Amino acid sequence: MFLWGPETKKLLTFEEESQLISQIQNLFRLEEVKIRLQSQFGREPTMAEWADGVGLSCYALQTQLRSGTRSKEKLIHANLRMVVHVAKNYLGRGLSFQDLLQEGSMGLMKSVEKFKPQAGCRFASYAYWWIRQTIRRALFLHSRTIRLPENVYTLLGKLIEAKKFYNREGNVHPTKEELARKIGVTVDKLEILLSAARIPLSMQQTVWTDQDTTYQEITADTAIETPDVYVAKQLMRRHARNLLHTLNPRERRIIRLRFGIEDGYEKSLSEIGTVFGLSKERVRQLESRALDKLKQCLASHGLDAYANLLV
Question: Coiled coil where (predicted)?
Answer without folding.
Answer: none
